[in-house]
Amino acid sequence: MKSCRRGYVLKLHDQHKERENFMRNRKHLFGKTGAFIAAMFMCFGMTAMAAPSVQGDDQLSAVKDQVVSAEYTITSDEPMENAMLQLSYDKDVLTYMSGSGGNNFSGSGGNGMVQLTSKPGDDTASFAVKFKCKADEETSLEVISCIITVDGKELDVLTGETMSEEDPDAEGEEGEEEEDEERASFVIDGRTFYVRRPDSMDDFDTIKMMIQGIESRVLKHNELDLYLIKLRSDNGSYRDHFVYHPDTGNIVPFVERESGTDDIIFIEPDANAYIPTRYVYVDMPWGAKYSIPAYKHVIVDGIDEIFDDSNVYLVYGINQDGEKGWYSYDYDTDSVQKFDDVAYQGEQDYIAELERTVQGLNSEMSHQLERYNTDMGRRLTIIMIMTFLLIVLVNVTVIQYLRMRKMQMPEQDEDEEEYFTGTTVKTNLEENETDVDDLEEEEDIELEIIDLDDLEEEEE
């Protein structure tokens, strides 16, 4: 027995040595093979394929009220049919202005997010983004998503993974994936979004619901009359949850914020909801592609309505207790506050009373101005008439005066005789002249009246 056991052990020992020799020879062979392959690469200059990449600015020096730019370049081994780049920025420091780059470019941004897309048709795609600075400080930018399409396949540049055309979250219970044409869909910013299986969330249960006549999976809140659906864009770039309103068939991006001790979810305003005065409906931008129904305060200037300069919007929301109402949302600080309708309405009533008073004063001033203009018009007419009559009277007077100046006294006949009656003429008589008293005594003598003017003319 011992000899048999010893022989068996020796046999195992020999087999172990043979295995070590084989492994040693195998490693030596692999080493030679690797060296041979490396030598072949060096001799023939074979080029290794590089993975797609994106490079660009991740830091900006912000200067208040100035415009700064950031540039990005996406490279690929093969021509890209489509390129999509998503950035995040500090909205307290920067404000998105515009983007540019490539063929069929489209860009949008706001609220700390920017999305840029183009169809390069080349192995390189370039984008540029402009921001307006709100403060003086160094701020960072981050590429949160970069997806390219090559040969009909989508590739995540950041992870290097190929994105499946099928949604992994939407595996049917029957084991087969439904086609997009068989799903409920919504059009957002010109792109079609399809309803997919929603992600699991706290306080929500997955149920089936008819949407657009198609059975779809939705999330139903445990206590509230609130439904969530998940939408996926037709190119797979967007996968987000939305609040679905069965009564209207509308959707609102799922946004949950804290307001004090309440958790607020933005929803579509009820049809019979009270809308505060001096608020006008607007679409509040949300992210790169979405918008939320909201209202913005306006200032009435005559008949014109002018939006105020703040980025505060009035949104409709529901809290965890199911209470619905208006909330003031500050777009710049991303904060929510309960809208005090009582205080606001009291302020508006006071403003309305002031406006009525001002309107009454303006009306009275307009009436007084109209009366003044009427009275002044009458007075001006009277003054013009009196002036005209005065001018006419002066002209007539002047004309009459000139006519009188031109008139001449008629000449008297020299033979005309006039007699003095009871008149005594006293004069200095020269020598050999007769006194008039003496003449009176002679009844037969006639006196002749001599015109002194005629004598003077004769003497001349």
Report on the structure:
By secondary structure, the chain is α+β, with helices and mostly antiparallel strands. The chain has a domain at 53-166: Immunoglobulin-like (Sandwich), CATH 2.60.40. It is built from 4 helices and 27 strands. The chain is elongated and about 150 Å long. The relative contact order is 0.06.
Describe the protein's topology.
Blueprint: H1 2-44, E1 53-56, E2 59-62, E3 67-75, E4 82-88, E5 94-100, E6 106-110, E7 113-118, E8 124-133, E9 137-140, E10 142-150, E11 153-156, E12 162-163, E13 185-188, E14 191-196, E15 204-211, E16 214-221, E17 227-233, E18 239-245, E19 250-253, E20 256-259, E21 262-266, E22 279-286, E23 290-301, E24 304-307, E25 312-318, E26 324-330, E27 335-338, H2 341-406, H3 436-441, H4 452-459
Antiparallel strand pairs: 1-3, 2-9, 3-8, 4-7, 4-10, 5-8, 6-7, 10-11, 11-12, 13-14, 14-17, 15-16, 16-17, 17-18, 18-19, 20-21, 21-25, 22-23, 23-24, 25-26, 26-27
Question: What distinguishing features does this structure have?
Answer:
Immunoglobulin-like; six-stranded antiparallel beta sheet; seven-stranded antiparallel beta sheet; 460 residues; alpha+beta; 4 helices; disordered N terminus
